[in-house]
User: What shape does this take?
Amino acid sequence: MNKIEELALAMIDYNNGDPKRIQHTTKVHAYASMIGKCEGLDEVYIKTL
Assistant: This one.
């Protein structure tokens, strides 16, 4: 299991399986990654986002 998968499982556990909170966190991650890629950040910074 990679770090992103570990983090996703920890987030689900932290949010007690609440679908709305999990979806929100997942969307924030996706938007941050997309913005980082559009800004031309390298993979290290995108993973940090």
In short: Residues 6 and 33 are 17 Å apart (CA to CA).
